[in-house]
Amino acid sequence: MEEKGKILIIDDNEDVLFALNLLLEPYMEQIRVTTQPTRIEHFMTTFHPDVILLDMNFQRDAISGQEGFDYLKQILRIDPQAVVVFMTAYADTGKAVQAIKAGATDFISKPWEKEKLLATLSAAVKLSRSRQEVGRLQNEVQALKGDDRIPELIGNSPAMQKVKETIYKLSDTDANLLILGENGTGKDLAARMLRFFSPRREQVFIPIDLGSIPEQLFESELFGYEKGAFTDARKAKPGRMETASGGTLFLDEIGNLSLPMQAKLLTAIEKQCITRLGAVNPIHIDVRLICATNANLHQLVAEGKFRQDLLYRINTVELHIPPLRERGEDILLLATHFLNQYNRKYRKEIKGLTREAKNKLLKYEWPGNVRELQHTVERAVILSENGLLKPDDFLFPQGNAAAHQPALTEELNLEKLEKNAIERALKVSTGNMSKAAELLGITRFALYRKLEKWGL
């Protein structure tokens, strides 16, 4: 028997179960047996068999095979992809053929021939594994395609209306786009909305956080590899760019790419083809490119830290996402949205915010933008025991609660703000890099790059 798997055997004859268990033990990964077909659902949901070996006749009706048909229907109701092999006496082969039409995979005659039994079960296990793989791939494709709901960019402020209008204007184009904005403003959501209102809506959407890919893994992650390309390459694997072909490729944190990585990415974009590691022949790709960053790429170009030719390739159109502090009453719209979301999640019945709580949210500067507001509301919902959220339910770092106050010019320098934010995050997290990265709304690898940049 070539293929091992998990098998559930259902027969009311204990001698048959004993004999099959003894015979199949060397050839199967795991075996479960039962004389009670009423326990089918239990075994299917706890044991998850690859194959179910089911007798056609039980004690209630020893000759018609109707019980077997009834249990087959039950199995296929639970799992339409289940692989069921019937056991039947010689005289019941006609019913077995009828059962196959009803959804069974195959049948085995009693008494069985060992080699034929093993061959039938091996084929059944292979079929089961094949169906599982197809189902997994279908789920992956569906996840990549996303659902049919329109991604929500919540906000009625003039700044957000301008963003939405720009997205709608771009609905008929495949132009490469660059989304600019601070961390936590919703650049990922804007990218998904751009894809939704694009000619590639029905195709895959592949997001890549470039800041999280170590330089030594850049080529294998983006371009893929062939079997044997390196020590752990036990089988070929397509890269993210190949997987995205025909659809949309979203490159987040593109400002964190090193110059060598930028060069490799530029070559792939310009030639519209990639070559897997260990391969000789290039693979054509067709992707619509959306990039995002919180960095000033034009300044990085002037400093020699970002390739100008790459910038030209990715910013046919630039879309600026405003920070939350510039969106006025959108803060309250978003707070209400998150309140409803976490009411459902945590089974709370908080009806809203007090006037004082609303004023507190409007006065805060929101350095972490929408992401910070979301976490703040979630924490408030979890901890609150009242019907309304009050000012004390919203906890902000000391010294940051005041807002809309004139700031000194030097405090508006983005580089200094970034450095100060990193230092504060490291202090608050007591040096825990993962926690600090989470507070900053960036990946741990991106944080390492910034630490190196600032010599911290």
TrEMBL record:
Biological processes per GO annotation: phosphorelay signal transduction system; regulation of DNA-templated transcription
One Gene Ontology molecular-function label: ATP binding
Pfam families noted in UniProt: AAA_lid_14, HTH_8, Response_reg, Sigma54_activat
Domain Sigma-54 factor interaction: 153-382
Cross-referenced InterPro entries: AAA+_ATPase, AAA_lid_NorR, CheY-like_superfamily, Homeodomain-like_sf, HTH_Fis, P-loop_NTPase, Sig_transdc_resp-reg_receiver, Sigma_54_int
Domain of life: Bacteria
Residue ranges annotated for the Response regulatory domain, each copy included: 6-125
Record-given protein name: Sigma-54-dependent Fis family transcriptional regulator
Organism: Phocaeicola plebeius
